[in-house]
Amino acid sequence: MKNITAPPWNLVGNGFILLFKFPRDFVLSNGFIPPFLEKHYQGGFGAVMLVDYHQSDVGPYHELLFIPGLFDYGGSKRYSITKIYVSTIESVVNGQENWGLPKELANFIVDSRPDGSQNITIGRDGQTFLAATFKSNAIKIPINSRIMPLNLSLVQQQHDKTMITRPHATGWVGLGKLVSIAIDDRYFPDFKAIKPLSVIRAHEFKMVFPVPQIQAGKAVV
Asked: Is residue 20 domain-resident?
């Protein structure tokens, strides 16, 4: 068992955020919804994120995650990360134990081109399951999630505990563009037929993952 680095965590990185309003049927069929949330999906805005954390409490790592939208949980609407891959075992173990995040290990290859584009390839067990090319605009504006009218609360489950976490972030964002994408839906939701509402390029953002609120006992499904 790897050592656990307790929260809060402070992370610094860059990445791409793809914002969506996913069709309900797509989420229920392809969204890797855990059993305790299957009957609670509400819709709203969802996201796919590809992040390069060059600083964290367990060292640098890459991350790919899927947020299908909001769930009505315990009388509150919250988000949940239903599929997530990272590039180090330290991040896998700590993410699972600290916040109930269903992290899995994968191999990430990021190729930054002279024209400013990035090719990102992700795979596991010798199988590439996602390959994407992005471009980004040089213009950036500051952002602070604490002053935005958004509920960034996450609900996750690990062992016999349900965890509620409210991360927050500051940094700089600009526009990005998804040039191409290929996905194997056995490993990750295949969203390529769904046009994103926006593609955001996040620059040098700082994220805090705090101590979660823990509720003993599994949720009623």
From this structure: yes
DSSP β-ladder status, 127-136 and 118-124 = antiparallel
- At 170 the pLDDT is 94
Distance CA 97, CA 163 (A): 10
Q: Is residue 150 part of a domain?
A: yes
Q: Specify the number of domains making up the chain.
A: 1
- Residue 122: which domain range? 9-216
CB-CB contact of 27 with 33 (8 Å): yes
Task: Report whether the peptide linkage leading into residue 7 is cis, meaning its omega lies within 30 degrees of zero.
Answer: no
Q: Please write the tens of the pLDDT for every residue from 164-215.
A: 999 999 999 999 999 999 999 999 999 999 999 999 999 999 999 999 999 8
In a domain, 4, yes or no: no
Ranges of residues in the chain whose predicted pLDDT is under 70: 1-2, 146-151, 216-221
Residue 221 lies in a domain: no
C-alpha span between 176 and 189 (Å, rounded)? 21
* Strand ranges for the chain from DSSP E: 9-20, 41-43, 46-55, 61-67, 70-73, 76-79, 83-86, 103-105, 107-112, 118-124, 127-136, 141-144, 154-158, 161-165, 168-183, 198-209, 213-216
- Counting every residue, how long is the chain? 221
CATH number at residue 92: 2.40.400.10
